[in-house]
Every structure is written in structure tokens, then in C-alpha cells.
Amino acid sequence: xxxxxxxxxxxxxxxxxxxxxxxxxxxxxxxxxxxxxxxxxxxxxxxxxxxxxxxxxxxxxxxxxxxxxxxxxxxxxxxxxxxxxxxxxxxxxxxxxxxxxxxxxxxxxxxxxxxxxxxxxxxxxxxxxxxxxxxxxxxxxxxxxxxxxxxxxxxxxxxxxxxxxxxxxxxxxxxxxxxxxxxxxxxxxxxxxxxxxxxxxxxxxxxxxxxxxxxxxxxxxxxxxxxxxxxxxxxxxxxxxxxxxxxxxxxxxxxxxxxxxxxxxxxxxxxxxxxxxxxxxxxxxxxxxxxxxxxxxxxxxxxxxxxx
Length: 308
Description:
By secondary structure, the protein is an all-alpha fold. It has helices at residues 6-23, 29-44, 47-85, 87-92, 102-120, 122-139, 144-162, 168-177, 181-213, 215-218, 232-239, 244-267, 271-292.
């Protein structure tokens, strides 16, 4: 039988306080520091130890999240390298034929955000997906605010709460609870699925209601209902010449990450092993772009910008 001690009650009280502060849209850094101190004090009964816990908690958290920070940094560098050769635009080009209306745009932006978030985490995915799909969604008359809703709902909401590919978040939870990563993921699926369906349904109903009640908001982009989605911006993009290497990387990059998913399932890779596979693939893509986009020997030198 589990017996609750003083530290457990402190944890519960501080959790409620932090949730209230979040609902008030305020920062929670100081309340979290206070909560860690009080839990350290209640567990040890020693003020000195409680003060030490503040530092040790930061070090422990930094150690646990280091792998996630590293893989995010690597993937961001990879995405910038792909952008430098235009491969990112080539990868996203087929979606332009699909995004014809604002309703389709909402789900396409969300679906792409979800998939990218599984591989690179939501924060860097926002910059990548937003830069590529936002202009297309706006041409489909999807308002700015609903582009943001779709990206955050599917990315930071559905994507981060599942984290099936990198498995960083469930891996940390599993380690803290002394469980296997896959058991945490499996147990969270019913809650995740329920949350996903409810949030998507509610946001979609709000989207429909707002579109009916405020037509002016939909038309703020200045694009009429019958505008062709391959207008001036499409003509500019059509004139851009993509190198054969950019086309190869636009095919190779998603193929490699798809292969990662297959390998994870076939080899049973979980947690840190899955993260390492994704991170290693990103490093491989980054290295390929760096070496073959220009002069091979130039890629072996450190470049520095001269400031005048």
C-alpha cells in the first residue's frame, strides 16, 4: 500500500498552484523554484540540503534534456542546409496542388506540422513549416490566426504529447518512473487519442463558426474567392532553377527518415536509441549537403565573414 508523505502533498499543492498561474498566463519559473525548494526541504528536513537540491535539480534536468537539445540543434542545422539549396521547397511543392481551400489548408498545415514535429520537435518545426506553408495557406484564404492554431494544435499539442519517433518526452517520463519507454507510450495512447479527437473537433467547430460570423477576417488577406493559387508567387518560384543535387536531396531526405521509422519498428528501437537514429540521419544529411553543394575542398575549411 502506497503511503503519501509530506513531500507528496507539497508536490500536489505546487502542481495546482502552477496550473492556476498558467491559466492566468503568467510565468511559472519562480513558482517552480519555490516548489523544488519546498519538496527538497520536506524530503530532507534540512535547509542546506534543500538549497543544494535547487542546483542539483537544474543539473539533472539539463542532463536529461541534453539529448533532446542536441537532436533539435542538429535537425535545425539540417533544415537550414536544405533551405540553402532549395530542397525544402521541392519537398513541399506537391502540397500546393492539394491546398485549394481554407478548410483543406487547415488540415494540411496541421498534418504536415504533426509529421515534422514527430521528427524534429515542434519548436523548430514551426519555423520550417511556417516559412514554407504559410504563404500557400494565406492564398487559400486561411486567416493568420488559424494557421497558428493549426500549427500549435497539431505540433505542440498532438505531436509533442505523443513523440512517437524521437521518444524524448516519454523516455524522460519512463526513466523517472522506472518504466520501459514503450510501456509509457502504449499507456498514453488512449488519453492522447481522446485529447486529439476532442481538440481537433472543438477547434474545427470554432473555425467554422468564426468563418460564418466574421467574413471580414477571412478576406483580410485581400485575395478574392476565385484567385488562382499559382499567381505571382507561383510564377516567381517556377522561374527558379533547382540543381540536380537539390532534387536528389528533396527525395533522399524524406526517404531516409521514412527508413528510420521502418528500422525503429523492425529493430525495436526505443527512447535514446530511436533519438540517436534520427539525430544520426540528420547529421548524415547535413554532411551530404555541406560537402556536395559546392567545392569539396572548400567544405573542409572554416568560413568566416569579414566585417567592415
